[in-house]
Design a protein that fits this description.
The complex is a heterodimer of chains A (about 120) and B (about 150).
Chain A lengths: L2 H23 L6 H23 L11 H24 L3 H26 L4
Helix pairs in contact in A: 1-2, 1-4, 2-3, 2-4, 3-4
Chain B lengths: L2 H7 L10 H27 L4 H22 L3 H27 L20 H15 L9
Helix pairs in contact in B: 2-3, 2-5, 3-4, 4-5
The chains are: A mainly alpha (about 120), B mainly alpha (about 150).
């Protein structure tokens, strides 16, 4: 796990979450901006997956439970696509809030992944 | 735009999940995912350490999944399932939350309900109440007996 990349990812997911919740409460239906924010969150998660697979080969090992780490990562990878589909099935302001909740959940999960990799002792 | 029509139109057909209800379902889905993930890790890696707590974790995960599905589906049958699972959740979070504080030895590791769901921003405590409010205000119509 690359720590600075993970912090960037946390910032993006948190910002995307707040943006979508604010726009949703303001009455906006899902649009290119809010859906795009979730796509960006998903792309960063895929990058995180690639990094996580490659890192041990470069001596960058998780200090905590690898099983728990990947459970969070796989769960987080599922969230943005499901949220986008769920939001497109009915395009209302609440669908935009749903996008935001998904992005914030990803942020929490990424933070847990960071703890598992750097702080948690197996 | 289509959202205005969709926002109310489906209620007539017994579809409960429109508008803010879709947010409720989304939060339920996230909680179901969290409960599944935690339970999977606990059972796969250290079940023998706390069989009671981990079995309860798995049970809670299944109930959250069923509740999520029941909220999405329409019809009287699913409506009852939704009530039953949500009532179970509220009971679970209150009983397990209390027991985990009074007899911490029984729950050496966290479940989704320990300390009234403290590890999950107390969402497990608040969500069943919101779910019950939603169900009470969105009863299935007579024509929708399924």
């Amino acid at each position: 796990m690359i720590e600075w990349f993970t912090w960037v990812q946390l910032a993006v997911a948190g910002a995307a979450g707040l943006l979508c919740i604010v726009l949703g409460l303001a009455g906006r239906v899902p649009n290119d901006l809010t859906n795009g924010a979730l796509v960006l969150v998903e792309l960063l998660l895929i990058a995180q997956l690639v990094v996580a697979i490659a890192a041990p080969a470069f001596g960058n090992e998780a200090t905590g439970s690898v099983l728990e780490f990947y459970t969070y990562l796989v769960g987080a990878l599922l969230l943005p696509p499901v949220a986008i589909v769920w939001a497109l099935l009915e395009r209302s302001r609440w669908s935009t809030v749903v996008l935001g909740v998904a992005a914030l959940a990803v942020a929490v999960m990424v933070y847990r992944m960071l703890q598992i990799w750097t702080v948690q002792q197996a | 735009m289509t959202e205005v029509r969709n926002a109310r139109g489906k209620t007539r057909n017994g579809r409960r999940m429109t508008g803010i209800g879709r947010l409720l379902v989304a939060v339920y889905g996230v909680l179901a995912l969290a409960a599944i993930g935690r339970s999977f890790v606990q059972i796969a890696s250290r079940f023998e350490e706390a069989p009671l707590a981990y079995t309860l974790s798995a049970l809670a995960a299944v109930v959250y999944v069923v509740a999520t599905v029941a909220l999405i589906r329409s019809g009287r049958g699913w409506y009852r399932v939704a009530w039953a699972t949500i009532a179970f959740e509220l009971t679970g979070v209150i009983v397990v939350g209390t027991v985990s504080i009074v007899f911490p030895a029984l729950f050496p590791d966290d479940t989704v309900w320990s300390w009234f769901g403290r590890g999950y921003l107390f969402i497990p405590l608040v969500l069943p109440v919101l779910g019950m409010w939603w169900l009470a205000t969105h009863r299935p119509s007579e024509a929708d007996a399924a």
